[in-house]
């Protein structure tokens, strides 16, 4: 009995020590919501401090996001990994301590705007912010209703997820290291390649290095160097590791050289040929490319790209340098590394080039928001594929700086089927190889590759060409099994008597052919049945086609809400847009809980053209104050501004609204703005708190709480005549806060932090300092009751009563409540029989195990509260040390008692009447420890 019980006690002590110290190893207990409701998860950052969870549904999919941060948290669905076009969910705690959720849309690398649709696209479920953690769960509609401001969910394949967070709840630009992106496999589509660079044992490195060149000062330079592949009949490329060696590097391309002319083999080992305007690259097979934004790529086991003497023995390394500033003395030695071996793979990957291989000879119309350019791959080429067809697994889309959208359509038997690939909101600095969920392509299929460009800032036609300032349109498709077809497109041969064929022809390039197959084709202009257009059900206010300039007298109004409750609108009359000057109409709207709100033309506060709104002296109207700030000082009244407050302005239903006309906003003392601009720059700022309440247009203001920037496409706000477009249209807002929240959630983060700190301190004092010493047990229990009360309040308010820490705490509270009564019985029985009974053992050992369990539970509490590393280490060391000391005292005390027990028994056996004091002394060993 003695050795068994004390051996168990030693085991518990050892477990207690290591369990307390090891709490920090459970990396996901800090996530506050139920993770079991999801079937997919990934850490978005390298430190695993931002965790994403998801469950794909039929119409809506559910997502959970959690971050070890104390401020706003945002997660976005992006086509490219860039902010541009991202459909973003934002969660934060407002000034009243209420968790708020917003759906926002990023039109560029600017503050995302609050989306008009706050119910259909995303649906908020729950949110949490406390103890250094922000988290929320929401539903996202899989098929977007309006692709202008929303994004589809890649339910069967891969999705770029972007994120940002802050340590405060002011939704502004994130700090360094507080954002990122990750390419996430949401669906269960087959994986062929991944955009990462894991170690690959059993492979060899093949690095192509361009001999160092002095980069010319010309804006555009292409250099070419020839390299021999590793010797073997057939090798297999298994991974790519590109390196951007110079900031002037625009892109890299590695071409396979089939049927290499003997004379050009002399280029091997020589200085690169940078006479790009006269050099003709004879190599047409595409191996790979690097462009800004691209990372390494690795094929899954069983897949690889074949190369070697059976296919090609040389590659041409093309480097494109873009030096618009004409920098001198810049050097570069570009390189590209492949991992390969000669072990045959199960599936050989090939690459098909689609798009405009002619590169030059075509032009884009200037001054247009979207201009398409298309090329066709005809069935004359695809019929050369194997009879079972091929399977596309990824697409790399490539354009230059004007590129906006691109897609590859599949036309089969005169009918368009699901697209091979599409990409909206293209960003040149965010290029990548887009993974596909294995798409079957059949012999006889026709493909239309279309690129859309923004030429609104161009005044002359934009040519296709090799320069960065010109445009391209390519789509490189990886597929299996590899075959001889390298490229499929069309060429414009022009019209000349010496040509055997004139006009536009179909072109098919094969690795086994000495020259491309060029044929006239009826498929270049053939009609087909199109798929229904989806994703264009956009609100009229955000649709550029709803009120085209000059179409009618109806005013076109463009609105944005960069903050949930702060909104701005603009209208440009047709006459003002045509002349470049004249009246424009603006609206500012915000709650009366704001001291002041400002809208400004420009990119920075200095020299911006500002308009401030605050309550008038009588509290029924608003004061409009035009201002400017020559330097970084508080803005003062701008007497040169020609503004008029219009009908519909005032204070109603808790909101301030200023409708006004500006007659000289096309220019001001330090700047100007084009009323036809598609990207006009605007700023906003505000201060919350008691309103200024003044009619003075030069009233003193305090520094803003928040500010931000955004852009307006004024062409969408153009139309109608010189009329006030805002009459009766002010004051509409949407609330996105939960209908009800607990008292705990309504407390500020500071107050909640103090509750947590008080709970932890009291419990630690009770279990680490008071209970183990055996002193002041009633006081220790009182301290523990106070700690438990705080804990139960916090756990019940934040739905954490089911957590192990809370359950153990409540069990201990109940057990220790009965311990004094059990102790009294123990002492009375001991006084009669002069030996331990089951009352004694229940009192002594339950108490001791309870103390140890309380120490362990302190570690669980630190983990649940997501405490920092330092508190965890400090508690682990102190609690563990105290636990070991406590166990040691108990263990050796019991050994000592066991040795003295016979003498004590002999003494007690003498006939003697014990008094109360003697009974107490006899029981003294049991009184030292609980």
Write structural notes for this entry.
- By secondary structure, the protein is α+β, with helices and mostly antiparallel strands.
- It folds into five domains: 2-26 and 746-928, no CATH class; 35-189, Sandwich (Immunoglobulin-like); 192-348, Copper type II, ascorbate-dependent monooxygenase, N-terminal domain (Jelly Rolls, Sandwich), CATH 2.60.120; 357-532, Jelly Rolls (Sandwich), CATH 2.60.120.230; 558-717, Sandwich (Immunoglobulin-like), CATH 2.60.40.
- Helices cover 20% and strands 33% of the residues.
- It contains eleven helices and 51 strands.
- The strands form twelve sheets. Strands 12, 13, 16, 19, 20, 23 and 24 form a seven-stranded mixed β-sheet that branches. Strands 7-6-5-4-10-11 form a six-stranded antiparallel β-sheet, with no helix packed on it. Strands 38, 39, 40, 45, 46 and 47 form a six-stranded antiparallel β-sheet that branches.
- Strand 36 (504-510) and strand 37 (517-519) form a beta hairpin.
- Helix 5 packs antiparallel against helix 6 and helix 8 (838-864) runs antiparallel to helix 9 (869-909).
- The longest helix has 41 residues, at 869-909.
- The chain is globular.
- Residues 918-930 have a biased composition (Basic and acidic residues).
- Residues 48-166 form the DOMON domain.
- InterPro entries: Cellobiose_DH-like_cyt, Cu2_ascorb_mOase-like_C, Cu2_ascorb_mOase_N, Cu2_ascorb_mOase_N_sf, Cu2_monoox_C, DOH_DOMON, DOMON_domain, PHM/PNGase_F_dom_sf.
């Amino acid at each position: 009995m003695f050795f068994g019980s004390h051996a168990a006690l030693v085991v518990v002590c050892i477990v207690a020590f290591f369990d307390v110290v090891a709490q920090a190893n459970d990396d996901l207990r800090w996530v506050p919501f139920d993770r079991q409701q999801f079937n997919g998860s990934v850490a978005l950052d390298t430190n695993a401090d931002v965790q994403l969870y998801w469950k794909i549904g039929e119409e809506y999919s559910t997502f959970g996001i959690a971050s070890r941060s104390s401020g706003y948290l945002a997660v976005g669905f992006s086509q490219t990994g860039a902010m541009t076009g991202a459909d973003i969910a934002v969660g934060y705690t407002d000034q009243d301590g209420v968790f708020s959720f917003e759906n926002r849309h990023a039109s560029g690398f600017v503050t995302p705007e609050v989306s008009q649709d706050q119910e259909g696209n995303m649906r908020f479920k729950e949110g949490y912010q406390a103890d250094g953690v922000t988290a929320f769960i929401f539903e996202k509609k899989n098929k977007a209703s309006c692709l202008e401001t929303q994004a589809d969910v890649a339910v069967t394949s891969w999705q770029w997820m972007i994120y940002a967070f802050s340590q405060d709840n002011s939704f502004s630009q994130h700090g360094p290291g507080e954002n990122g992106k990750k390419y996430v496999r949401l669906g269960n589509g087959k994986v062929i390649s991944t955009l990462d660079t894991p170690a690959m044992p059993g492979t060899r490195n093949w690095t192509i290095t361009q001999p160092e060149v002095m980069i010319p000062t010309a804006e555009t330079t292409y250099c070419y160097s020839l390299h021999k592949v590793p010797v073997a009949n057939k090798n297999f490329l298994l991974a790519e590791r590109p390196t951007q060696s110079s900031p002037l590097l625009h892109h890299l391309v590695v071409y396979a050289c089939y049927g290499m002319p003997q004379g050009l083999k002399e280029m091997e080992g020589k200085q690169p040929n940078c006479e790009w305007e006269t050099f003709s690259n004879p190599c047409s097979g595409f191996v790979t490319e690097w462009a800004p934004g691209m990372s390494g790529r690795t094929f899954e086991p069983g897949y690889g790209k074949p190369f070697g003497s059976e296919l090609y023995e040389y590659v041409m390394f093309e480097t494109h340098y873009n030096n618009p500033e004409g920098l001198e003395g810049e050097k570069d030695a570009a390189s590209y590394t492949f991992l390969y071996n000669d072990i045959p793979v199960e599936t050989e990957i090939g690459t098909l080039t689609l798009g405009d291989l002619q590169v030059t000879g075509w032009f884009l119309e200037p001054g247009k928001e979207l201009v398409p350019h298309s090329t066709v791959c005809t069935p004359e080429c695809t019929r050369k594929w194997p009879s079972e067809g091929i399977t596309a697994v990824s697409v790399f889309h490539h354009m230059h700086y004007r590129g906006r959208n691109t897609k590859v359509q599949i036309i089969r038997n005169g009918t368009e089927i699901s697209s091979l690939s599409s990409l909206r909101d293209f960003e040149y600095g965010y290029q990548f190889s887009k993974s596909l969920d294995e798409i079957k392509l059949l012999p006889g299929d026709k493909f239309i590759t279309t690129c859309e460009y923004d030429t609104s800032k161009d005044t002359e036609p934009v040519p296709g060409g090799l320069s960065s300032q010109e445009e391209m349109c390519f789509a490189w498709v990886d597929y299996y099994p590899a075959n001889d077809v390298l490229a499929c497109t069309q060429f414009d041969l022009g019209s000349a008597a010496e040509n055997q064929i004139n006009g536009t022809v179909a072109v098919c390039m094969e690795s086994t052919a000495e020259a491309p197959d060029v044929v006239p084709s009826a498929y270049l202009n053939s009609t087909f049945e199109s798929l229904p257009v989806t994703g264009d059900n956009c609100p009229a206010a955000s649709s550029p086609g709803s009120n085209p300039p000059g179409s009618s007298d109806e005013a076109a109004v463009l609105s944005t809400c960069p903050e949930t409750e702060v909104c701005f609108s603009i209208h440009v009359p047709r006459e003002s847009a045509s002349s470049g000057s004249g009246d424009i109409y603006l609206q500012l709207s915000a709650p009366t809980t704001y001291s002041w709100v400002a809208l400004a033309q420009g990119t920075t506060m200095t020299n911006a053209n500002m308009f401030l709104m605050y309550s008038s002296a009588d509290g029924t109207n608003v004061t409009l104050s035009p201002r400017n700030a020559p330097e970084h000082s508080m803005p003062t009244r701008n007497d040169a501004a020609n503004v008029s407050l219009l009908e519909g302005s005032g204070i109603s239903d808790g909101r301030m609204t200023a409708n006004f006309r500006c007659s000289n906003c096309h220019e001001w003392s330090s700047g100007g703005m084009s009323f036809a601009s598609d990207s006009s720059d605007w700023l906003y700022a505000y201060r919350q708190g008691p309103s200024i309440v003044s009619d003075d247009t030069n009233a003193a203001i305090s520094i803003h709480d928040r500010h931000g920037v955004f852009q307006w496409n004024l062409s969408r706000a153009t139309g109608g005549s010189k009329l006030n477009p805002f009459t009766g249209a002010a004051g509409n807002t949407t609330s996105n806060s939960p209908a009800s929240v607990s008292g705990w959630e309504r407390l500020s983060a500071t107050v909640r932090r103090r509750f947590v700190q008080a709970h932890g301190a009291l419990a630690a004092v009770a279990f680490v300092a008071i209970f183990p010493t055996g002193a002041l047990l009633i006081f220790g229990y009182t301290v523990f009751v106070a700690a438990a009360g705080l804990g139960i309040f916090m756990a019940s308010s934040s739905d954490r009563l089911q957590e192990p820490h809370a359950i153990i705490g409540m069990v201990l509270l109940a057990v220790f409540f009965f311990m004094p009564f059990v102790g009294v019985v123990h002492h009375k029985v001991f006084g009669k029989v002069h030996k331990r009974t089951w009352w004694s053992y229940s009192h002594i050992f339950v108490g001791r195990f309870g103390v140890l369990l309380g120490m362990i539970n302190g570690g669980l509490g630190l983990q649940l509260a997501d405490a920092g590393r330092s508190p965890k280490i400090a508690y682990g060391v102190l609690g563990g040390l105290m636990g070991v000391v406590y166990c040691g005292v108990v263990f050796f005390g019991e050994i000592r008692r066991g040795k003295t027990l016979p003498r004590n028994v002999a003494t007690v056996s003498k006939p003697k009447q014990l008094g109360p004091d003697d009974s107490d002394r006899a029981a003294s060993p049991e009184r030292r420890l609980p």
